[in-house]
Design a protein that fits this description.
single chain, 419 residues, alpha+beta, UDP-n-acetylglucosamine1-carboxyvinyl-transferase, Chain, 2 domains
Length: 419
Amino acid sequence: MNKMLVRSGRQLQGEVNISSAKNAILPIIAASILSSDTCTIENAPMLRDVFVICDVLKTINAKISIKNIEDKIIINTSDLVCEEPDSDLVRKMRASFLIMGPMIARFKKFKISFPGGCNIGTRPIDLHLKGFASLGAQVSFGHGYVEAYANKLVGSRIYLDFPSVGATENIMMAAVLAEGETVIENAASEPEVEDLANFLKRMGAQIYGAGTDTIRIIGVKELKGVKYRPIPDRIEAGTFMAAAAITKSRIKLNGVNEEHLKPIIAKLVEVGVIVIPDKDGIIIDGKNNFNPIDIKTMPYPGFPTDMQAQMMSLLCTVHGTSVITETIFENRFMHASELEKMGANIKINGRCAIVEGVDTLTGSEVKATDLRAGAALIIAGLIADGYTKIRDIYHIDRGYVNIEEKFKQLGANIERIEE
């Protein structure tokens, strides 16, 4: 069983290259289903989740070549079959459900098991199914499966009760080959949604308004294969920004989109972190005295739920009282009890975490309860007295490319060990 061992005592310095976004590439891989031509994804992050969704597509006869050295994925779905994909693979990752929209668009029917993923709360697929039904699909589910069938898909006006990223992406992919016009209202406006729309437009789709709360799609008859490079991972960038802050370090992040990072930058600046735009990146300087703050996670352009755990680690060391309110997922404070093992003072009251800053954290054996929790524990371990041993790091590998190597490059004392 692999674990991560983190020892404190070193400031970070130097530069780190940010990978392409996990949450952008997964729907892009799913969208490759929409064309029988070859799609090539460049600068692909070689992540556990990426390999899983590629394996899901392989079970329905997609031809996929993963070139690790070149960070390239080549996908050809010309021989795709409309069969139920391997249920064990689908249950490994929630994003597997993103293939349903493109499969319905291409074959007008599909059956898939309910998806899995991190245990951070209920993430219903009802909005996805509502969208498919609005486009003309008959949807049924039971015994752990979802099935949809349509004679044809016809554009419609769809209002989402919540701006779900997954539902917005799935409906958008289903609608690009539907007859007529589809309008998605109260759509998610995350950068990853806009990136998927840009990929689809490169393929020949007609999509307007992606990145706003209203997306308009004019159906086309077919799409072509393309080469594409996904956007940088704003959550990976935010993770290294929080790490620089907690260690009072100055580092440079290369290959980031500052616009996508505005909500994270705003809160770090409020804490007291210095953020300096630089050519091809940004510089993070954590040498100031810090202030406690309040954070409320919200859909984009609000503060991202995927950065809540990492910010909690930082605020554990900031004198005073900080309050974190989680509005997206109801079960996303599991990392708090792990941080408490390291000496953090955190009280959970429903969807609020009250964080009282402490003078020091102490290394301990802790568990990565989910992907972002694992990153938060690495951040805490960078300044905890002694060493921190993190179990269940397979969660971390789902979303971070060679995270220990990137931290080593910055001077951190971190290694992967096998016990």
